[in-house]
Amino acid sequence: MKKNNIALILNEEDKYPSDYNEHFVSEIEKIPTGSCDNVYVGDIFDRIEQEHISSMLKNIVEKVKIEDGLVHIKSPDILQLSWYTSRMNLDVHRLRYVLYQTNRKNCYTLEEMIDMILSVPNIGIVNAHYENGYEYSITINRYEN
After folding, report:
1. Annotated domain spans of the chain
2. Tell me: the pLDDT tens digits for 37-65?
3. What is the DSSP string of 66-107?
4. Topology of 5-142 in CATH?
């Protein structure tokens, strides 16, 4: 059975896994509640105003199947990015690109993102770890009380 995997994007330049179907965040209301196996959001939370994150997160999580559906967040961690730039010789051009050329309004740490996720009811963190040293990956699901 083919999975219903969607990637939420803000613009056409956003990158997402090849086995996902793209949908603009602005059209999220068209996605039926509980219809998705996986939703990939990448770093969209870094590119919206912080006061909108909780409501957007709640809206996104409602699109996945209860308990079986997953939401995948992957984004740079500002502290890890700084550390890798100063200690591991991460190219300064890469740092500038991530911070200034990707329309970010913010760049959160893994801990900050976890706190925002845990503030939304009926959401559980399945996995949270660092990838490639300076990006975090968080997988969350939805459950009912």
Report:
1. 5-142
2. 999 999 999 999 999 999 999 999 999 99
3. TTT-EEEEEEE-HHHHHHHHHHS---HHHHHHHHHSS--S--
4. Rossmann fold (3.40.50)
